[in-house]
Each structure stands twice: as C-alpha cells, then as structure tokens.
C-alpha cells in the first residue's frame, strides 16, 4: 500500500466511516466505497488506454464522482485539469488546446458546451456513465499503485486577471506538504468535518480542506453552489467543525434571515482569504456567534496554505495575514532581491516543497517566477517587528503617479475607515499629466453620500498624491465566481463612463 494513497489507508483502518457526502444528491460514500470505486475507475481508464502523464479535463461542479475521479487519477499518474465551467466556449477551447487532454469528463448540465467543443476531436464521457460503471462492475483483484511524489496531479488555470490564464502544475509532493501545513496550523483530526462550497477549478476547492481532511480520514460535505441560508442550515445540522469561505460569502451569510437562529457551537473557526478580511467582519462573527475567523494568505503556485493568523490574534493584529505556516520559508525583498527590514515593503517570496515546479507549457514564465527555488509571488508585503505579515497589494496593482509609489490596498483601507463606506476598490489607469492615476469604486450604506464628502474626508486623512483622480459610488462591487473583486468589469464600467460625451 502506497504511503501517499490516503484513501486506501483509511479504507483499511475505518472502512465504514463516511468519507464524502453530497448535500445536492443526498448521498454519501464511505472510505471503503471511495477506495473500491476509484480502483474500478482505473480499470476503465486502462480500457480507454489512458497512461501516466495523460490529462483528463473536467467540466463539472464538485461532486462525489469528482472525488472518485481524483483518487483514480492520482493512482494512475494521470493529471486532472478542472476547467472553469463559467467561462465562454472560446475561453474553454483555449485551455483545452493548451493542456491537450486525452479525455473530457463532464456533468449532464454542461452537455451543450461539450457539444460545441466537438470539433476538437475530444473523447468525452459523462460523469453519469462513469458512476454507473464503477458502481456496477465488480473487480476481484486488489491492485497496488505506486504514487510518485513528483508526479503532476493537477493543472489549475489561473483566472487571467492580468493576462492569459496560466496552467499551474500541482504535484503529489505539494499535496502532502500542504496537507501537513494545514493540519498543523488548524489541529485537524479524523473527528473533523467540513462543508466545501468552493469550486473545483480553483486550488482552494481541493486543497484548503478537501485533501487535508481526506489525509486525516475526516468527513467532507459538499455543495455544488454556494447558498447562504442552505450553508448555515447544513453547518448546524452536520455539527461542522471547520469551514472555509471568502469574505463576500461570510457577509452574505451574516445578512441571511436565519443567521442569528442557527447553532454553530461545534464550529471551531472559519478560514477566510482570497480578498482582504475586514476586521469588522472578524469582530461581528466573534460577537454574534462566538466564532473565530482566521485570515490567511494563499497562492495557486504554492500550497495554497502559506500563512495563517491564529484566531486569538485576529483582533489584536487587524488586517494581518499572520505568520508563515510550518514547512516553508519566506523572505521579503526589494527590487534588487535584498531582504528588507521590518516594516519595509517588498515582494513576498516563498520556498519549500509546497511550491509548484512551474507552469504548463510555459518555461519562460516559470523561470521568471521561480528563481533558485524561491517563488516570487508578485505580492507586496511587509513584516512588523514581531514577524506578523501584512499585504500591500499585487505588484502589478501598484502604480506610480508623479514619481510616487501608490499601493491601492492602502487607499482602500483608508476609504473603508470612513463610516459610510462599506467597500472600496482602487485601480489605476494611464494619465497624461501624472503617468498614472487612481480610480476608486465604493459602496455605501448612506444613499445620500456624495463624492464631494468622500474627497473632503480623504483631504483630512490621506496625503494628496494618493487621492484617486476618479471616484464612483456603486450599488455593488462586481465579483468573480470565487467572490473576488472582478477588476475587468470595473475597468469596463470606467471605460464606458469615461468615453461618454
């Protein structure tokens, strides 16, 4: 039995324990089921002449069948490529051309999209057909699989907010060390349970809680789509102990009518990240539910579990992303690669076995991002004198206006300190006079708030060169499927407004 085959281990130790539950399909698989079904699926892949290193692309929401597929691929050394089903056909086709899968697996609700990809001569199969196969076909012989640590396990395509999507390679070694980092920070055991509401086309949908809990022989519940009220009810009914949600999702949950009624006493803490975790959000959940929120920082290229702020420090160190997790090293460097001093801003770099070996079919990008084992994240950060880390924003987000470096996250934080502003996003555009200038988009709880009042507030609290040239008050800030700010839509809005006569 291979030491990286966690499902096989738990099928031996606790065969009858429920491993995964789908709350959409209202069904569960035990560890014994998961082990046997994955083995039968490897037979099907052999029949289809799939081999180590081949890619299987998937167009589907999270499900029990998806987890079975993951285990089977890991055992055979096949690379799983979760595709973002929210993308257009043209965008999906580009990803398929890049990863050249031998097989495309899909859910029935994506059948029309799959039909539009037929000209790519892809071999396709529906999850329903795979499930029918592995549940009805008996396999008498026990197989032994050798899972290789350096074998690629996933290709995760980045969102492409700053360019064309890049395929990040994720290996078995990364899976193992990410699981250890997560488990050590959060004290995960076989007694824990989670509900995954994150999509499978992002590393967080697999590697925040799904694979670490599989490693620990714990229980994983799944919802295909996030629904605030349904999630709250399931957290109570299933006595869930660990939960991951983006700040946007947590805000939606606390605004749900049943929020104050549900009993979440078994929930040890909530992990949040992806966007800035407001200190007000942390304080609200602690006050109303006595639940700690642990902010952290992650990256598709490393882990994704990189830093974590201990839950009891969340209010003592507001806006911090915590300290580095156990099995990794970090450094913060200036433009010349020299380590900066405490409280000085520089680029955050990461080293360890959680770092990707590179990007699929993109050696140039790999060599630019990974140097002597160090991943240059492209994120600006600083560490205080106690070693707690704080983000200053993306390297690509920083802009220079009139010769001054401006970090949008700093301006956003100042805007959100204004009592009537609930959310702020700052972007930059070219400017004939200053080179670049800022655009601020804000939402407010006061419908009478004016741009004039916002500018007066900034004049009193922020040096003039950091003031955004343009300020827009919106009803909502557009977000991606992961709950992150959709900067593309904001730029489109600005360009539309700015081009009007």
Automatic annotation (TrEMBL):
Belongs to the ATP-dependent AMP-binding enzyme family. One of its GO terms (biological process) is fatty acid metabolic process. GO terms for molecular function: medium-chain fatty acid-CoA ligase activity. Keywords: Ligase. Residues 9-360 form the AMP-dependent synthetase/ligase domain. This is Long-chain fatty acid--CoA ligase. Gene3D superfamilies: 3.30.300.30, N-terminal domain of ligase-like.
């Amino acid at each position: 039995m291979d030491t990286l085959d966690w499902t096989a281990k738990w099928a031996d130790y606790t065969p009858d324990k429920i491993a995964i539950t789908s709350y959409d399909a209202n069904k569960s698989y035990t560890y014994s089921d998961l082990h046997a079904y994955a083995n039968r699926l490897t037979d099907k892949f052999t029949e289809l002449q799939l081999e180590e290193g081949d890619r299987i692309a998937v167009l589907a929401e999270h499900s029990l069948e998806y987890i079975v597929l993951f285990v089977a691929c890991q055992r055979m050394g096949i690379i799983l490529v979760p595709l973002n089903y929210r993308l257009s056909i043209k965008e999906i086709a580009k990803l398929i051309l890049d990863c050249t899968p031998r097989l495309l697996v899909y859910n029935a609700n994506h059948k029309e999209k799959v039909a539009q990809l037929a000209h790519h001569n892809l071999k396709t199969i529906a999850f329903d057909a795979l499930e029918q196969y592995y549940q009805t076909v008996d396999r008498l012989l026990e197989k032994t699989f050798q899972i290789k640590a350096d074998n690629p396990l996933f290709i995760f395509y980045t969102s492409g907010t700053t360019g064309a999507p890049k395929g990040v390679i994720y290996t078995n070694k990364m899976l193992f060390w990410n699981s250890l980092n997560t488990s050590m920070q959060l004290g995960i055991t076989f007694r824990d349970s989670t509900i995954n509401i994150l999509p499978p086309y992002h590393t967080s949908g697999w590697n925040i809680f799904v694979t670490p809990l599989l490693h620990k022989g714990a229980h994983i519940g799944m919802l295909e789509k996030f629904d605030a009220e349904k999630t709250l009810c399931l957290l109570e009914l299933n006595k869930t102990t660990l939960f991951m949600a983006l700040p946007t999702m947590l805000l939606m949950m606390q605004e749900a009518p049943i929020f104050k009624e549900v009993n979440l006493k078994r929930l040890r803490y909530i992990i949040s990240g992806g966007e800035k975790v407001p200190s007000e959000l942390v304080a609200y959940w602690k006050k109303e539910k006595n639940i700690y929120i642990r902010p952290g920082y992650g990256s598709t290229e490393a882990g994704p579990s990189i830093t974590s702020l201990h839950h009891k420090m969340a209010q003592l160190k507001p806006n911090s992303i915590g300290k580095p997790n156990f099995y990794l090293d970090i450094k913060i460097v200036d433009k010349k690669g020299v380590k900066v001093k405490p409280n000085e801003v520089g680029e955050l770099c990461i080293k360890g076995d959680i770092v990707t070996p590179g990007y699929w079919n993109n050696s140039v990008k790999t060599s630019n991002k990974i140097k002597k084992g160090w991943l240059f994240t492209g994120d600006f950060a600083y560490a205080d004198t106690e070693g707690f880390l704080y983000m200053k924003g993306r390297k690509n987000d920083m802009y220079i206006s009139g010769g001054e470096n401006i970090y949008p996250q700093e301006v956003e934080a100042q805007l959100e300190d204004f009592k009537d502003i609930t959310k702020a996003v700052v972007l930059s555009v070219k400017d004939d006079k200053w080179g670049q200038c800022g655009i601020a988009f804000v939402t407010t709880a006061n419908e009478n708030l004016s741009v004039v009042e916002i500018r007066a507030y900034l004049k009193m609290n922020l040096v003039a060169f950091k003031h955004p040239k343009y300020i827009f008050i919106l009803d909502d800030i557009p977000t991606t499927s992961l709950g992150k700010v959709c900067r593309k839509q904001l730029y489109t809005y600005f360009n539309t407004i700015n081009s009007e006569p």
